[in-house]
Amino acid sequence: MKQSDLHNISKKKAGFEGQKAVVIPRKILNEQFAKNEITGSLYISDIGYYPKAKYHFIERSHGSGQHILIYCIEGKGEAIINKSRFNIKPGNFIVIPMQTPHSYGADERDPWTIYWMHFKGSIGNALIAMMKDRFTGFIGYIKYSEERIKIFENIYKHLERGYSNENIVYANMCLWQYFSTFLFPDKSLESLVHSGEDITDIAIDFMRKHIDQMVTLDDIAESVKLSPSHFSFLFKKKTGYPPIEYFNHLKVQKACQYLLFTNLRIKEIAYKLGIADAYYFSRHFTSIMGVPPKAYREKRIQ
Fold first, then answer.
1. What is the largest CA-CA distance in the chain?
2. Which contacts of 268-275 are long-range, i.e. CB under 8 A and separated by 24 or more positions?
3. Which domain holds residue 246?
4. 34 and 161, same domain (yes or no)
């Protein structure tokens, strides 16, 4: 993450009821997203949803290290991008090129509800230029589409389930479809097809359900009625990670959400994740995210 991403001014620290966000660990972002031949051209670095986000305000005087897309479905807001001011209403979206000075925030009387994401990739500049050309600037308008929201939620759902190669490639390939709904809003969208769950999905659901506990490999294997050795082989083949390492990634992801959206102390967050030793939790968090929990909270980007 570049220093420009960390130079933010925010009116809101405690979060918004119903909000959600996933911030991809920068190590995984750089080693898996950016270097992957499929996703390297366009990939998400951060993604979230803020409902009725009263007092939400962000200012980046030197811009961001990623491109930004913000889509408003309710309420109002305002954005200043490279000294140009825009009033945001339902149906409006804004695109902010990386390294472009900007600020944005919700209207205090009628705060916006937004879907947002930060993204990068080798075609990022070309995509931003295409959107600006199509809508004559940084702002556009599109009619509400339930299918567009479903695509966003599908992307979010898969990134929230961890960073297996399959999840990464699938979520970021869906990103192309998501952007197409902004560029070509009059084109009909195919119905989304939801596939059935396999043993990996069942195991991940078990992990998420028991995120507040310290479960063992035997516990997870039992949830899918397989021997630990056979389950580990199948799980790593599918996700690229051993089951316990994957579980720990999910714990750190949950910790990030607590740090972003609550005022819980570090030891309280550790306890909520089933970790009795706050110092162990901090060391583990740092090894995954690259910064200690306290520093991560202070440098939150949204």
1. 61
2. 269/293, 272/212, 273/211, 273/212, 274/211, 274/212, 274/213, 274/214, 275/214, 275/251
3. 199-298
4. yes
The half-sphere exposure of 84 on its side-chain side, counting CA atoms within 13 A, is 11
Question: Which of the listed residues 133, 153, 183 is the one where a domain comes to its end?
Answer: 183
How many CB atoms sit inside 10 A of residue 249's CB?
Answer: 20
Q: What is the CATH number for 285? A: 1.10.10.60
* Tens-binned pLDDT, residue by residue, of the chain (302 aa): 333 333 344 455 456 788 999 999 988 998 888 888 889 999 999 999 999 999 999 999 999 999 999 999 999 999 999 999 999 999 999 999 999 999 999 999 999 999 999 999 999 999 999 999 989 899 999 999 999 999 999 999 999 999 898 899 999 999 999 999 999 887 754 433 344 468 999 999 999 999 999 999 999 999 999 999 999 999 999 899 999 999 999 999 999 999 999 999 999 999 999 999 999 999 999 999 999 999 999 876 55
Closest CA to 215 of 242, 238, 241, 248: 248
What is the rounded distance in angstroms from the CA atom of residue 118 to the CA atom of residue 89?
A: 20
**What is the value of pTM for the model shown?**
0.78
Q: Does the residue 94 lie in any domain?
A: yes
261 inside domain? yes
Four-residue CA torsion sign, 244, 283, 267, 253 = negative
Domain boundary among 158, 183, 208: 183
Contact 7, 62 (CB under 8 A): yes
Q: Are strands 113-120 and 43-50 parallel, antiparallel or unpaired?
A: antiparallel
Task: Please check whether residues 234 and 160 belong to one and the same domain.
Answer: no
Q: Are residues 115 and 33 in the same domain?
A: yes
* Whether residues 86 and 166 fall in one domain: yes
Per the structure, how many domains does the chain have?
2
> Would 215 be classed as within a structural domain?
yes
Instruction: Please report how the helices 165-183 and 228-239 are oriented relative to each other, as an axis angle in degrees rounded to 10.
Output: 30
